[in-house]
Amino acid sequence: MSSTPSAHLQTLRLEANEDSIAYAAAQLRAGEIVALPTETVYGLAGNARDAAAVARIFAAKGRPSFDPLIVHLASESGETFTSPSRQLEAQGWIDAAALSEEAQAIVDRLVRAFWPGPLTLVLPRAPAVLEAVPGAVPTVALRMPSHPIMQRVLQQSGCALAAPSANRFAQISPTRAEHVMAELQGRIPLVLDAGPCAIGLESTIVQVDAEGGLALLRPGKIGASLLASFGRLRRASEGAVHESTRPLAPGMLSRHYAPQTLTRLFETPLSLAQSLRELGASLQSARAGEGIGLLLLQAPDAELRALLNTWPAHYCRWLSEGGDAEEAAHRLYASLRELDGLALSALWVQCPTQEEGLWGAIRDRLRRAAAAPAD
Ligand code: AMP
Ligand code: MG
Predict the structure, then answer these.
(1) Which of 207, 303, 309, 352 has its CA 20 to 30 A from that of 120?
(2) For ligand 1, what atom is nearest to the CA of residue 137?
(3) pLDDT tens across 149-206, in order?
């Protein structure tokens, strides 16, 4: 598989409308790749049944080829999925025989409850699925997105679309067309612009095993407690994340910074206040806050505001005025990206303490962002 993307001197950014949707669909049918809006984040789409198109996605992203892609499906026009696992088998995506009857019933219930929407199901794959899409794994990841533009492109192209997030490997996921341009300008021919993504966090990923057990592979808007009502749910290992709960220390200012801003997490305004006091004590107060971006979950209270009064206002942001999880998720990546673009020496980011629900999903992403750049 080639690791060099085909050169596109200029990436077209077109507002999503009849003409641009038809053009995007034609490009996809011809084996090209196109960045498209979904309700979660912008995806870089290619025909999932075309090995060359899938190879182009990996090359444009610089993504290691062992990391499998999610396949996005058109919603049945008008008619509902009556027996989803059977239909996914008939369409050549899954091997339903590898699932017990109970497991099939669970898949059917999950699909009826959450598709189209931000739930990706990892299921035993059919032999017909391209090796290139699921990598070396015996499963395939499937999702039916609800975004109307994505759905129209899916329907007009007639292709199922493999579509990872439309960012360079290891960068922040794009939630606006301009983020896609910043990441992939010159590496892809086209992005359809439909404004900001409503949810702003990637889909929840759940694997259904042969006996109908559920494994939460990636938390998202559809939370664990809701999923647990569909079957036995276990949370897959969070993987190695660095311990990021130790207090922030002024010593970090002497670090040698990587090009992408060093990110440290803190969990409570109290631990932030303590770090600010330590910082204030060790630096001349005029320099406190210099070069450090601060991202809070909600607007600071009066006490924190007093501590932050020397902080340059545009270095300090919050995800939601009143601590609303949906608003915070919607703004998370754009806020991180804006702070990252200020060429600061560090970002201090407040991490939610909740493991559950949308706050839990935000926590998951932030812990990965601070441990190592996430794909
Ligand atoms: P992205 O495409 O950037 O939204 O990331 C897709 C995520 O889905 C990655 O973390 C993949 O590793 C994961 N994924 C895709 N296919 C599978 C699969 N068959 N089994 C497990 N995880 C998968
Ligand atoms: Mg990604």
Answers:
(1) 352
(2) 19
(3) 999 999 999 999 999 999 998 789 999 999 999 999 999 999 999 999 999 999 999 9
